[in-house]
Hints:
CATH topology of the largest domain: Rossmann fold
Mean pLDDT: 96
Largest sheet: 6 strands, mixed
Radius of gyration: 19 Å
Strand content: 15-25%
Order of helices and strands: EHEEEHHEHEEHEHEHEHEHE
Number of helices: 9
Structural class: alpha/beta
Low-confidence stretches: none
Number of domains: 2
CATH superfamily of the largest domain: NAD(P)-binding Rossmann-like Domain
CATH architecture of the largest domain: 3-Layer(aba) Sandwich
Number of strands: 12
Amino acid sequence: MRVTISGANPGDTKKRRGWLGSPMSYSRVIPHSDAAGFVDSVGDGVDRDRIGQRVWVFGAQSYRPFGTAAQYTVVPEMQAVPLPPDVSDQLGASLGIPGITAHRAVFGDGPVEGMTVLVHGVLGGVGSIAAQLARWGGATVIGTVLRREDLAEVDASTVSCVVALDEADPASRIFEASPGGVHRIIEVALSDNADLDAAVAANNAVIAAYATREQRPQIPFWPLLFANVTLRLVGSDDFSAEARQQAARDLTTASRSGDLKVRIAQVYALANIAQAHDHVDAGARGRVLLSIPE
């Protein structure tokens, strides 16, 4: 595949600096798993009509040393997803890790039509896509932000109610929007929000957690038990092939229909990849991308 835009994620910078004490899996790594571009050649058994096709790519550097921060990358056929003509390369390069993680968090336990979905960190990379996918799937979406000054940045056409976690009583605000509690919780900081999640979860709710601040989070066991809550831990590198394929189909469909948009924080030249990673680590509001030269 010829890469035109490469997407940087927090996971890329964490792998590089030995997050949780784990060294890089290979002595030399080309980083980044996400990209957009076009198929320039195919291997045995792959339809040659795919040559020249615009695609978006996921998982290029998942258990492999050769990612997308380069002019060319090679991936299994299913990981090069056709990109519709009216969907930009920048959006395509933003779908991989955050999009597939968001899709699994929202739909991993079935459809959400008619439900209320609480998305923590709704301005974040995964959270913003999760909110849009939940809305696309027919759910009512409640979102949270850390600070009250962030409330105005949330898209009211997607999120029907947004709650700042620095308010005096965020649980009451959530119950105002959903008196019976919430059915799905998309969780970016399980260690921080476990008590709030237990307070607002409806019976048989699912908490889909893809991140936490503390490595060993404490949870309020009995309130979660009495509400029959399911805790789903969502690790994007190890989803089943079927889950990733369904996510790829839905993300492409929602992008083509205009129901899925991604905020771009900045596009860097490939030569400035170090600055791009610093921007990611500083908490970029939106996707950080690399433009790959010919």
